[in-house]
Design a protein that fits this description.
Layout (H helix, E strand, L loop, with lengths): L9 H12 L6 E5 L6 H13 L12 H7 L6 E4 L8 H10 L10 E5 L7 H12 L5 E7 L7 H4 L3 E4 L5 H12 L3 H10 L4 H9 L2 H15 L3 H11 L3 H23 L12 H8 L4 H17 L6 H12 L6
Parallel strand pairs: 1-4, 1-5, 2-3, 3-4
Helix pairs in contact: 1-2, 2-3, 4-5, 7-8, 7-9, 8-9, 10-11, 10-12, 11-15, 12-13, 12-14, 14-15
Bound molecules: zinc ion (ZN).
Length: 327
């Protein structure tokens, strides 16, 4: 993938290309911005571009170096990812040890730490010294969609490159191109994906319209009829995709009410077709209640990979949604 295939991040890409052209590289970068907007792709492309034998400041995807990086078999390019929700000290130590020697093949060794905010405290501490003085010929890239949770000591050592939400029109064009969606469908999914290509691709793989309507109708009625919510919990806990979709759409439901409650800006709503319903619910719910439900959904979503009991999680959520104590 060359830089021009990463859509909607022109500013970030320009910074990276210029750094290579001017040979003015930072040793430690932080790529930050929302999930699913191309940070990891940009990091891998940057690693390729730094070592490409054909192009000066981009990846050709054809030379041996580019191909090895693409296949994750390049000895000097490492991608560290979380394991069961955490980046552990052992993984960081392995990376640090691998930096003792000069790169074997690469002009620049590149270490990419995806979801760097998942480093536990001891892993962050172990990494600090390396971030302070990375070995020569090494570029470290931390990736995070929640950089505020990174220790200040880590943040202060990084050159920050910001990635923004991808414009809706760009997401729609990519969906038409990559997934072959019709323009109308691509636009409706793009609108719901909140500027995230990753989210848009997940959402377009299910029958978005049907699933969305099913879930939102259930939540809209279910707060008066808990049985409906328990029935939904059973249905949507059967597989990952259903579970993910249910959490996502339930979250958008309360997010939209929260937006109406705090800003009242209709244009920011994801489920614009439900504005009238949300306006009614807005006055029935406190901000604390909304934040409580949304926080619970986020914590379930994060715990998803740790094998949470999906049905139980949705039932607890149902109990929170169905609570009659709202004012
Ligand atoms: Zn190349």
């Amino acid at each position: 993938m060359s830089f021009n295939e990463i859509k909607g991040q022109d500013r970030a890409i320009k910074i990276l290309k210029q750094a290579i052209t001017n040979n003015h590289l930072a040793q430690t970068y932080l790529f930050h911005g929302p999930e699913g907007v191309g940070k990891k792709k940009a990091a891998i492309t940057f690693a390729k571009a730094l070592n490409c034998t054909t192009h000066e400041n981009d990846a050709c995807d054809q030379c041996l170096s580019c191909r090895k990086i693409e296949q994750s078999i390049h000895p000097d390019i490492s991608l560290l990812q979380q394991d069961k929700g955490e980046i552990k000290i052992g993984a960081i130590r392995d990376i640090i040890n691998s930096m003792v020697y000069r790169p074997i093949e690469a002009r620049k060794r590149v270490v990419i730490v995806d979801e760097a905010d998942k480093c536990n405290i001891s892993a962050s501490n172990a990494f600090l010294k390396t971030l302070e003085e990375p070995p020569v010929d090494t570029v470290i890239i931390l990736i995070s969609s929640g950089p505020d949770t990174l220790p200040q000591t880590v943040l202060s050592r990084c050159h920050k490159v910001s990635f923004g939400n991808v414009p809706t029109q760009t997401v729609a064009e990519m969906l038409m191109q990559l997934k072959g969606l019709s323009q109308a469908k691509a636009e409706s999914v793009a609108c719901l994906a909140d500027g995230s290509i990753g989210k848009a691709i997940t959402l377009s793989s299910a029958d978005v319209k049907e699933v969305r309507e099913d879930i939102l109708a259930g939540v809209a009625k279910g707060y008066r009829d808990p049985y409906l919510l328990f029935e939904m919990a059973e249905r949507f806990s059967k597989d990952e995709n259903g579970f993910y979709n249910a959490l996502y759409w339930i979250h958008t439901y309360f997010r939209d009410i929260l937006i109406l409650k705090s800003h009242g800006d209709f244009t920011l709503l994801i489920n614009k077709d439900m504005t009238d319903h949300f306006l009614k619910r807005r006055d029935q719910m406190t901000i604390e209640r909304l934040l409580d439900i949304m926080g619970f959904i986020q914590s379930v979503y994060k715990g998803q990979e740790r094998n949470v009991n999906k049905q139980l999680a949705l039932e607890v959520l149902g109990t929170k949604i169905g609570d009659n104590q709202w004012k």
